[in-house]
Amino acid sequence: MFRRIGASIRRFMYGRYGSDELNLALLITAVIVSLLNTLLSLFLHNSRIFSFVIYPLLHLLVMASILLCMCRALSRNIYKRRQENKRFRFFWSRLTDRHNRYFRCPKCKQMVRVPKKRGKINIRCPKCGEKFIRKT
Description:
Elements: H1 2-13, H2 21-43, H3 48-74, H4 78-96, E1 100-104, E2 111-115, E3 120-124, E4 131-135
Antiparallel strand pairs: 1-2, 3-4
């Protein structure tokens, strides 16, 4: 019986995107916000502002995050989901990069990576050759 259920789920998911790092981040966000909402409701259960403003907004954020995760997992537009995940991974790698700073070239808008903690430095864009000064 369970084999038939597994086979039917596999048939249903054939050609769909599935899960990736962005879906995992959305689910983790939903769990953390949900726990925060629960803890706040325990401590601020008498507050009218919490009951009528904050609680519904946090609940809406949790539901939107879960819904977006499900829509992404069941999507058949694999190319767009891969592009979204690629942008998320680039954004996340920049957030967690402790050794470099990122600047945009004022002329061609190319992203330039330079080492941190060097003070004021003269940066030369590798694409157009524009020179600009930034503090790292």
